[in-house]
Amino acid sequence: MNIAKHMEAIFLAVVAVIGATTFATAGDAPQRSAPEVAAVAAAGGAAMPVVVVSARRLSAAEKAQLPQ
């Protein structure tokens, strides 16, 4: 059997198996309502870290001086 000749059929079969697996396992994941998610987020107590980067832009002359 020439695999290259049947590559499209192999691809479609793999996609079908992955799709069936996705639908079969979709009910296994625990579902949370919006108030539960908010309560879990608030229970953490730690604020989300924020990084602020401030710098001035280089002029064309300064860019030209940088090593390549």
From TrEMBL:
It comes from the Bacteria. The chain crosses the membrane at residues 36-55. Residues 1-26 form the signal peptide. The keyword Transmembrane applies. Keywords: Membrane, Signal, Transmembrane, Transmembrane helix. This is Uncharacterized protein. The lineage of its organism: Bacteria, Pseudomonadati, Pseudomonadota, Betaproteobacteria, Burkholderiales.
